[in-house]
Design a protein that fits this description.
Length: 651
Amino acid sequence: MSVHSVKYYDVERTLSRLAMNYDRERSLLPPSTAESATRLNRMREYSYALSARTQYSRPGRTNLSAIPANSPPSSTPVPTATQTKQKRKVAKSMSTDIQCSPCSRDNLHHDAAGYCIECSEYFCESCIKHHKNLKITKNHTMQDRRKMPKVQKYDPEEEIIEICEEHPMELIRFFCKDHDEPSCRICATLKHRACSTLVYIPDLKSKETNKSCVNTIKQMNALAAQFETAREETERTMKTLEIKKHDYEQSMLKLHQDFIDHLHYLEQQAMRNLETLYQDQQGYISARVGSCSEAIKTLQQATQHLDSAKKNGIESKVFLQMKKIKKQVRHFEDLLADIQKKNKEALNFKFKADPKVKEFLKMTDVLGTLDIVQAPGKTVTTLKHFKVNSQSDAYDVSDVTGSCFLSDGRLILADMYNESLKVVDTSFALVTQTKLSTEPWDVCPISDTQVIVSLPKEKKLQFFNIGSTIQPLKKIGNIPSLKSSQYFGVAYYKERLYVTCPKETPPCIKILDMNGAPVHEIANSNQEQPIFSDPLFIAVQNDGKTIYVSDSGNNTIVTIDTRNDEVKHTHQMADGNHPGGLVVLTEGDVYTCGFKSNNVLRFNAGGQYLEELITNQGGLLSPQSICYWSQGRQLVVTMQKSNIVKVFQVS
């Protein structure tokens, strides 16, 4: 049976033949050359010995075990030293049909004088000199005429030079039709031993290959055309996004101008009322000033007349003036009393804002809301997965129950099994960890470099600073004068900590200050019925007005308005599925993972279900915590009792 008629190989037999042919070829080489042959040389020798382009014919089906270990096969006699010497002389003098590869590309025809293993190309004497002078290729392994592959009518473009990704020192020489994937000899042994259709690649039929190639090209062209259409649609979507952004800005500016215009109108009305009052009061006061001036003038004139009559000694005139003045004095005394009274009772006023306006300013935190008219679906692709266990762990298996991202993209993991807090860098490599005093449950960021971890067994929360190492800070909770609670889920918003207390009676949500003192508690509905059964995780909306609680006892996601403690919406998980961790995105969407359904669900800001973001085909098994990094659009999901952490790209 020749090489050209073989289509499928038994893996064991193939590897045995590879070894046999390799030994045969090594026996033809001088000892020094055989000893210094590198692993890559040996692979090339394997390939050339079995290549369909060589003149080598495999021996018949011989019992390999019957061949003596030190004796070569009968079909290939070992040459004597004289024969070898003669053979070498002939090889040096003879002309071959093998052409220099670089010269052939320039339509020049020079006989090949050597073969570069790394480049898989033939070179003439001149090209060999240039090849050895180049810095990038001077260390390549060059075979001379005696050792280079003797391939007749060889096209260098057809040489198989694919390197196995898993085994960088191995060439891709086989193709498994069962799994539709190429493999090297090691992959063939390890992964495809039981496969019935393992093909040696040089033996593939050209018709079959060409047909498959044509179909692949058509498929690739069609896919490229679809991507071109998708790109045009995406560009139109980008333009629409710009228009929506401009419309949003214009609407906000219009609202601002409406406020200014209406405020200006109200100001004008208030100023008109003030001006009317002012003019009235100014008239009254001016009249009193005039009365005072007139009284002073009249009294001064009367005094002068009386004094003049007295000096002239006219008694009758003095008498008449006195009577007249007394009458005026009584009038002016009454006038003076009236003026003094009015001055004491002068109008006093000040500006008083409308209570509705003050209440409006107090209750209004934002100019408006960013309502999502149509929430587009999210595209999620698996980015990678990584292992989170380390040699310093107490157990071989991790159980990450809580996770969060810092603003710089570092991932913080709470490993309950190993009672540790772990930090993973942006390339998803575990860079540092610290041993905790007890089992953690959840973790959330409170700044760019600080996180807080819940420790249910200790009934405490602990702060940590995350730098090149993890620095433990203070613990809060378990206040002696107050009833202690076991805190599980934890979230943060504006100097307030939101914690779940599933062991309380009834189970509740507590809002604490940064020292651990309770500020508020949410436990019962307006009908005095318990809201929660087993709340384990919690998240807070970006404006602080809404919280989301994952209740594994009722299998619900509960959405609560923090302004009045009312339940806005309750989503019932299907088929007794337990909800896991929660995360709120910048745009307001909420993600949670289904513990039994092995998926990730997406909700809007109102807590209403939108879509299944990651299906149960996404490789998740009992997911229990989830976190999101908005800058990198990366979604991380951890799984119960697993060292594997999944990373997804969201677009």
